[in-house]
Amino acid sequence: MSFRAAFGITVLLLMGGAALAAPQIAPWDPGRQMLVKRLRPPAWQERGLREHPLGTDHLGRDILSRILYGGRISLGVGLSAVTLSCLIGVTLGLLAGFHGGRTDAFIMRVVDVFLAIPYILLAMGVVFALGPSLLNVILVMAVTRWVQFARIVRADVLSIREREFVSGARARGNRSMRLLLRHVLPNALTPIIVVATLELAFMIIYESALSFLGLGVQPPTPTWGWMLSDGRNYVATAWWLATFPGLAIMLTVLAVNLLGDWLRDTLDPRLKV
Predict the structure, then answer these.
(1) Which domain holds residue 204?
(2) In angstroms, how far is CA 4 from the centroid of its own chain?
(3) Between the N and C ends of the chain, which has fewer C-beta atoms within 10 Å?
(4) Strand, helix or coil at 53?
(5) Burial of 159 (0-12, 13-18, 19+ CB in 10 A)
(6) Which residues touch 7 (CB under 8 Å, ≥6 apart)?
């Protein structure tokens, strides 16, 4: 295992573990407002308080606690959206690549339509129509990103379906569903795993962008994107409001991308030639 992969896994374990353990390790309730302590800087600066290591926001809420709890939402939404988009995209990609013909043509035209519309505009339209909520954000993110899985899986299945072991299984009378699930899908897992890892990094940024625009999970629930949005009005006077959630996003996305690159290099035999 390379240093990049080890670094990525370590950071992800730390971030994920801290988010899961937030109720136990967070020093404060993330929604508790203490106006007498508003806009206090990190503990190592003048006017900083030791009980608030990363400072407080404009309502006196503890930044560290909000980052820990915000990680639960940002990471949870990202994982849920990737899982749902993977299920949709892999299913349609398998059908398009294996059956071909009109099925393939129809699914690929749907893919073209989704690719032609900027995903952020599509997400904004759907959220405006359904309303911002945790479930709607996950649905929007999945519906606008499933095409990445569909295209990759279709391309792989087009090659796999012509191989001898698939022809042999078809000659033995195996039905299409059995061929897909037992012979085709297992041989297409490598690109699916790699794409899912890289999409997770994108989904974390995606959720943060929607929250920043006010279209994500609504306050008072803390998310990293909302913290960035709150902090933009205090960049000159209270730099810590946006800096620390921004660092959390950056480190998490960097770790996921490093892990995804390592998985791609390890699992894709074409890169070893």
Answers:
(1) 3-21+67-272
(2) 20
(3) C
(4) coil
(5) exposed
(6) 255, 258
Asked whether residue 39 is domain-assigned, the answer is no
> In this structure, is residue 37 part of a structural domain?
no
Amino acid occupying residue 159: S
Question: In one letter, which amino acid is 183?
Answer: H
Alpha-carbon gap, residue 11 to 146, rounded angstroms = 27
Structure tokens at 112: 């073209």
Name 249's Cβ contacts closer than 8 Å, sequence gap at least 6: 74, 204, 205, 208, 224, 228
Rounded Cα distance between 235 and 132, Å, is 26
pLDDT digits (tens, 9 = 90+) for 70-128: 999 999 999 999 999 999 999 999 999 888 889 999 999 999 999 898 888 888 888 88
Q: Is residue 213 part of a domain?
A: yes
How many whole angstroms separate alpha carbon 13 and alpha carbon 239?
27
Which tens digit of pLDDT belongs to each residue from 94-105?
999 888 889 999
User: Domain tally for the chain?
Assistant: 1
Q: Let me know: does 126 contact 140? Beta carbons within 8 Å.
A: yes
Question: 56: helix, coil or strand?
Answer: strand
CATH number of the domain where residue 173 is located: 1.10.3720.10
pLDDT category of residue 211 using cuts at 50, 70 and 90 = confident
- On whether residue 58 sits in a domain, the answer given is no
Cβ neighbours of residue 122 closer than 8 Å, sequence gap 6 or more: 114, 140, 143, 144
Q: Which two tokens stand for residue 250?
A: 């950056």
Q: Where are the alpha helices (DSSP H) in the chain?
A: 3-20, 22-25, 63-99, 101-116, 119-130, 134-160, 164-171, 176-178, 189-212, 224-231, 240-267
